[in-house]
């Protein structure tokens, strides 16, 4: 990419040079037969426009690709989770946590991921939305997994399990007469 | 909290969890707790969950024995002692005790060579030594005769003597009588006289005295003769002597003489043909002499013999030949019987003097010992029978006054190098301790009062004081490091055998565990035990040593308190918040007589020093002591003592306590269980007593409810309540699929077991059709029967334990011919609707509102029964500080061991095919019998002989509970029912950890330097 930009700058300087040589000929000397100046000029400008268009296309295409990347991840995660089973142990915990962590870290760096594709002509909202949605999906998957592992307080038992017994108003003691 | 365990490397744990389907690996209860724990706690406790996932057994390694447990062996108060002093070999004494123990003790050190506990229904009557190698014991009212090998205590033979009626038990082992190469032993028991071969215990002959109606008092066998003299009384007014041939039991001669005055007490032999007895009014001494088959009676008035004597005359049982001793109100008199039958008073001594039997020295000389109690010392004198005037030997021995008076003395002689006689005396003290005196010194002493513990409580130790000197810290730090380096060596298998021994020594004698200060984990405590002798002991839980002992003045025999017995021990003052300067104290309640209406005696004893702070002399009677859940500003617990007239007396007697009680009195109830009448009664507090004098600490009570069990069908045999200090963590029980059940947790539940009267005897006395066991759960505030269940064809004895919302009880099933354990769990149906998560989140529920028994909550119960192999002596349950840790039942088996059984084995929700969710919850598949895993015996190789009770005390560390089992022996250990998930184990190697950290730091530093260098090189390239 950098090199491409450099080439464009070079050409500007080259254009000046050719312009200087061609200006007198364009005024005094008629163009040789078969030579059409207009088409040349036109061709030059269309070429650069075309190139820019292609780049934008390419950027937006890439952006969409990047945006879709978490989908593969999602599938992968799903498979891993299925493999891990529904019991709490090191493996399933590790997978669930990575399923929660990966989307989170990805969401934090949304801007950075799409930085290279920033362009006035490229609309990044679509890919970004897709990216966010897919990552949220991944996170949901992780949360869902957490729930299937029974680690989310979604049951009554989670809220009452450490509820201490109610205070008793009355007190009673006694028993068999002491011997 | 540190979740770590150096026992379980993480790798195998992982595999354990990947094989989750195996129910054996996920047995632990905390798992269900954990899954239920809300929010982030859940996640943080996951590690805990990994660690607590092994089968919960208490198996130890061999070198861990004695590490956190101790075991002490006792014998009880000695009744009778027989010395055996072989010329060669170890000197020993054989004793029988009131705990029905026969033991052989080392005379040099007092250690037990061997010991047998015969059990509470096999009372030892007599012991003796036969043939110089057998210990002969007669027990169960003269119906069982056993011979034990003297050196090792193996039983040689046993004879059952089936008498026709109960009578005295007498045993005579002739020293040198030979009948056909055999040395017979003569036993009188069950109104029959037996001659028994001492070689194999076979009955040689039997002479029945039932028809004669004689009550034989003495069996005599004069030296050198082959005639047994049986001397006794018929109808309390006629002396009879029978002379019986030792060879065949043939009656040779019978003589009798009637004495109209009647006989009281025993006939005491003076010589082979003279006896002495007292008449029915204890005022006339009767000298019985036999001459040529004729009985000659001679009467002497006691008042003639001893001037100024007043009643209460008793002939002392000490057998002194030629003389006898009588005790009166004020003194003891020795009376000589001359050959002509005259009685001469030889000497009078103080009433507190204790007299031994006569001991025959050489050349027909006989000696006996007298012990007199002085001020913090005792005077022992040995006198010769024929020369009473002078002391053969007089010694003064310093004696701890906490041992009280001398109760019994046994003497034995030995020949010194200068051929004079030396004496050793075995004395039994008021506190049941046993001491050996020799040459004016206490050679050894045994605190055998600890064999009869009747009540146990605990006390915290003092808080460690600030300002420990630096040098001490440095030294201990150095020692600490040294110890850990040794351990490290041991772990890495580099230690020499000497070092291994040193490691083991460090582990067992760690000063840490026997310190006299409070520890962070709450392992170090004082066990305060009350013994039958009325002595209070404080034992250190670290090593079991006696920290202090105190013979309670209120429980000593005195004029006001003639027959004192200890009843109960309660914590009186437990300072933790306001009164930290005060020492904790305990309340001892005793009774001065045998009847329920006898006046009570109370003491308050400082738990740190054993000093009696208050001594409340004979007061009202006490049938019940209730520790109220209120305390005053000095942290004294309020207690109610209920007297025989159903009045409640409040203690401590301070206006503040009265005010607190007045405020709370409308919610204080009490109940009585009248087992004989089959009635439960509940009472409430009514008003102050109306005894003429105003007494604001005495309250009248009124009967609120009664439950009368029909006497023709039900008889109360057992009642159990929850332990007052038990802590319950939660009211909810989380079951499979995150469902929840609400426990009915009430401190006012009483478990009552009744059996049909026919089945109240021993097992086998009733047919299955006749016997019915009914168990009830009663609310003791309202008298409401919460649950009632009957087990047909079952009978007692019932042992039960009630904890949280469940009761577990053990009984005998006559139809199956097996013992069974049943469990009942009670759940609160009125709370079952509280299942809406949203409501629970915003706190819209009534689960924490105070509850009243009068609201009559709906309850449901679940129960299940299982077979259990053992018969049981006691059941208890572990208790922890917060009640989170899973519980284990502690079952004292008939073999005097304590078995820990996971409560999950007695879970009424067990089913044959548990669902997947239930399996994950930790529910075990149902089996018909409860497993007995040998590793689960917490007493491991030890036996707690004569096991009577198991006490559990929570440590401060939630995972751990302290267990104290008592009987004739004492045993203490520490249990972690779900393993020590909240601490590193004791043998965790800190040195290894330190070393690892240092190594890691070094490695980090080295690699950092290396990488810097490499970077530099790269840049120069």
What attributes characterize this protein structure?
heterodimer; A: mainly alpha; 6 helices; 3% strand; rod-shaped; disordered N terminus; B: 1021 residues; mainly beta; six-stranded antiparallel β-sheet
Q: What's the helix and strand layout?
A:
The complex is a heterodimer of chains A (179) and B (1021).
Chain A: H1 2-27, H2 37-84, H3 90-108, H4 110-114, H5 125-148, H6 156-160, E1 171-176
Chain B: H1 10-18, H2 30-36, H3 39-44, H4 46-51, E1 70-72, E2 78-84, E3 92-97, E4 101-106, E5 112-117, E6 124-130, E7 134-139, E8 144-149, E9 155-160, E10 170-172, E11 184-189, E12 192-197, E13 203-208, E14 214-220, E15 227-234, E16 238-245, E17 251-258, E18 263-271, E19 274-279, E20 284-291, E21 294-301, H5 302-305, E22 314-315, E23 323-327, E24 331-337, E25 343-350, E26 354-355, E27 359-360, E28 366-373, E29 377-384, E30 387-398, E31 406-415, E32 421-429, E33 434-438, E34 441-446, E35 453-459, H6 470-491, H7 497-508, E36 526-531, E37 535-540, E38 546-551, E39 565-573, E40 585-591, E41 600-606, E42 612-616, E43 624-631, E44 637-642, E45 648-651, H8 655-664, E46 668-674, E47 679-688, E48 698-708, E49 715-721, E50 732-735, E51 739-742, E52 749-755, E53 772-779, E54 785-792, E55 794-803, E56 806-813, E57 818-828, H9 837-842, E58 859-868, E59 872-877, E60 888-893, E61 898-902, H10 916-921, E62 949-954, E63 961-966, E64 970-975, H11 990-1020
Antiparallel strand pairs in B: 1-64, 2-3, 3-4, 4-5, 6-7, 7-8, 8-9, 10-11, 11-12, 12-13, 14-15, 15-16, 16-17, 18-19, 19-20, 20-21, 22-23, 23-24, 24-25, 26-28, 27-28, 28-29, 29-30, 31-32, 32-33, 33-34, 35-36, 36-37, 37-38, 39-40, 40-41, 41-42, 43-44, 44-45, 45-48, 46-47, 47-48, 49-52, 50-51, 52-53, ...
Helix pairs in contact in B: 6-7
């Amino acid at each position: 990419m950098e090199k491409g930009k450099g080439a464009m700058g070079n050409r500007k300087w080259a254009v000046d040079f050719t312009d200087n040589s061609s200006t007198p000929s364009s005024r005094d000397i008629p163009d040789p037969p078969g030579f059409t100046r207009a088409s040349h000029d036109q061709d030059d400008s269309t070429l650069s426009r075309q190139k820019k268009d292609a780049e934008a296309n390419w950027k937006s295409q890439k952006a969409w690709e990047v945006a879709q990347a978490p989908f593969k991840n999602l599938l992968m995660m799903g498979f891993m989770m299925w493999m891990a089973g529904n019991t709490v142990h090191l493996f399933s915990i590790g997978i669930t946590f990575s399923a929660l962590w990966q989307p989170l870290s990805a969401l934090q760096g949304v801007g950075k991921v799409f930085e290279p594709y920033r362009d006035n002509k490229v609309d990044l909202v679509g890919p970004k939305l897709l990216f966010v949605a897919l990552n949220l999906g991944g996170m949901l998957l992780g949360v869902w997994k957490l729930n299937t592992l029974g680690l989310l307080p979604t049951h009554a038992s989670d809220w009452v399990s450490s509820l201490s017994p109610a205070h008793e108003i009355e007190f009673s003691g006694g028993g068999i007469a002491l011997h | 909290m540190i979740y770590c365990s150096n026992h379980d490397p993480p790798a195998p744990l992982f595999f354990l969890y990947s094989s989750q389907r195996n129910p054996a690996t996920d047995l632990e209860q905390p798992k269900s707790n954990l899954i239920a724990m809300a929010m982030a706690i859940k996640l943080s406790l996951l590690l805990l969950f990994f660690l607590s996932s092994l089968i919960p057994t208490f198996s130890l390694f061999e070198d861990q024995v004695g590490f956190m447990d101790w075991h002490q062996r006792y014998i009880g108060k000695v009744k009778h002692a027989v010395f055996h002093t072989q010329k060669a070999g170890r000197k020993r004494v054989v004793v029988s005790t009131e705990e029905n123990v026969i033991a052989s003790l080392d005379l040099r050190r007092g250690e037990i060579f061997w010991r047998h506990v015969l059990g509470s229904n096999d009372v030892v009557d007599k012991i003796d030594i036969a043939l110089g190698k057998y210990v002969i014991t007669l027990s169960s009212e003269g119906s069982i005769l056993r011979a034990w090998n003297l050196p090792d205590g193996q039983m040689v033979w046993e004879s059952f003597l089936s008498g026709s009626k109960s009578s005295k038990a007498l045993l005579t082992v002739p020293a040198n009588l030979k009948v056909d190469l055999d040395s017979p032993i003569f036993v009188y028991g069950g109104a029959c006289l037996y001659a028994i071969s001492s070689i194999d215990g076979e009955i040689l002959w039997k002479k029945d005295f039932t028809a004669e109606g004689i009550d034989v008092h003495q069996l005599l066998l004069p030296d050198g003769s082959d005639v047994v003299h049986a001397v006794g009384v018929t109808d309390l007014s006629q002396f009879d002597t029978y002379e019986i041939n030792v060879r065949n039991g043939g009656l040779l001669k019978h003589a009798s003489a009637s004495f109209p005055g009647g006989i009281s007490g025993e006939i005491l032999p003076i010589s082979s043909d003279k006896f002495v007895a007292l008449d029915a009014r204890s005022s006339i001494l009767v000298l019985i002499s036999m001459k040529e088959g004729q009985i000659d009676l001679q009467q002497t008035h006691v008042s003639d013999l001893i001037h100024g004597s007043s009643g209460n005359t008793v002939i002392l049982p000490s057998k002194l030949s030629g003389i006898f001793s009588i005790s009166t109100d004020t003194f003891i008199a020795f009376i000589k019987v001359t050959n002509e039958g005259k009685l001469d008073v030889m000497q009078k001594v103080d009433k507190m003097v204790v007299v031994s039997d006569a001991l025959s020295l050489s050349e027909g000389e006989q000696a006996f010992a007298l012990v007199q109690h002085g001020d913090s010392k005792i005077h022992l004198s040995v006198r010769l029978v024929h020369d009473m005037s002078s002391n053969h030997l007089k010694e003064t021995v310093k004696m701890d006054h906490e041992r009280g008076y001398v109760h019994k003395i046994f003497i034995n002689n030995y020949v010194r190098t200068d051929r004079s006689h030396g004496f050793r005396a075995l004395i039994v003290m008021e506190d049941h301790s046993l001491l050996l005196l020799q040459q004016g010194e206490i050679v050894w002493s045994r605190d055998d009062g600890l064999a009869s513990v009747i009540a146990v409580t605990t006390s915290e130790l003092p808080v460690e004081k600030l300002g420990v000197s630096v040098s001490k810290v440095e030294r201990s730090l150095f020692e600490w490091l040294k110890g850990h380096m040794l351990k490290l060596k041991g772990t890495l298998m580099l230690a020499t055998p000497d070092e291994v021994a040193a490691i083991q020594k460090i582990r067992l004698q760690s000063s840490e565990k026997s310190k006299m200060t409070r520890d962070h984990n709450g392992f170090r405590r004082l066990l305060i035990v009350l013994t039958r002798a009325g002595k209070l002991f404080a034992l250190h839980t670290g090593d079991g040593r006696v920290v202090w002992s105190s013979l309670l003045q209120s429980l000593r025999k005195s004029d006001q308190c003639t027959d004192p017995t200890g009843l109960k021990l309660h914590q009186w003052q437990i300072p933790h918040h306001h009164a930290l300067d005060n020492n904790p104290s305990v309340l001892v309640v005793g009774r001065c007589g045998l009847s329920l209406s006898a006046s009570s005696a109370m003491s308050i004893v400082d738990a740190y020093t054993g000093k009696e702070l208050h001594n409340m002399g004979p007061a009202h009677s006490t049938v019940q002591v209730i520790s109220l859940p209120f305390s005053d500003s000095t942290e004294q617990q309020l207690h109610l003592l209920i007297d025989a007239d159903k009045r409640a007396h409040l203690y401590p007697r301070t206006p503040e306590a009265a005010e607190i009680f007045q405020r709370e009195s409308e919610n204080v109830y009490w109940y009585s269980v009248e087992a004989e009448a089959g009635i439960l009664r509940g009472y409430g507090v009514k008003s102050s007593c109306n005894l003429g004098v105003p007494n604001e600490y005495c309250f009248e009570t009124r009967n609120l409810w009664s439950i009368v069990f029909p006497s023709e069908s039900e008889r109360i045999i057992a009642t159990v309540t929850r332990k007052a200090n038990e802590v319950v963590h939660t009211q909810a029980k989380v079951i499979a699929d995150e469902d929840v059940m609400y426990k009915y947790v009430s401190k006012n539940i009483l478990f009552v077991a009744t059996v049909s009267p026919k089945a109240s005897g021993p097992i086998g006395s009733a047919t299955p059709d006749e016997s019915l066991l009914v168990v009830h759960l009663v609310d003791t505030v309202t008298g409401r029967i919460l649950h009632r269940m009957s087990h047909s064809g079952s009978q007692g004895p019932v042992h039960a334990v009630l904890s949280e919302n469940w009761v577990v009880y053990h009984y005998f099933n006559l139809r199956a011919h097996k013992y069974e354990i049943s469990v009942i769990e009670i759940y609160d149906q009125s709370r079952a609707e509280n299942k809406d998560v949203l409501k629970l989140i915003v706190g819209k529920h009534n689960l924490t509102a105070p509850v009243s028994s009068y609201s009559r909550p709906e309850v449901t119960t679940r129960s299940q029964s299982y077979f259990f192999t053992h018969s049981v002596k006691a059941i208890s349950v572990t208790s922890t500080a917060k009640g989170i840790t899973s519980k284990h039942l502690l079952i004292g088996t008939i073999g005097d061991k304590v078995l820990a059984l996971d409560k999950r084995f007695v879970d009424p929700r067990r089913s044959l095919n548990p669902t997947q969710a239930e399996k994950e919850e930790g529910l075990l598949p149902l089996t018909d019998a409860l497993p007995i895993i040998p590793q689960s015996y917490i007493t491991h190789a030890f036996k707690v002989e004569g096991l009577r009770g198991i006490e559990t005390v929570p440590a401060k560390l939630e995972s751990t509970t302290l267990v104290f089992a008592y009987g004739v022996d004492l045993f203490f250990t520490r249990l972690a029912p779900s393993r020590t998930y909240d601490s590193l184990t004791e043998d965790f190697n800190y040195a290894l950890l330190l070393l690892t950290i240092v190594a890691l730091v070094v490695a980090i530093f080295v690699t950092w330097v290396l990488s810097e260098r490499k970077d530099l090189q790269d840049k120069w390239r």
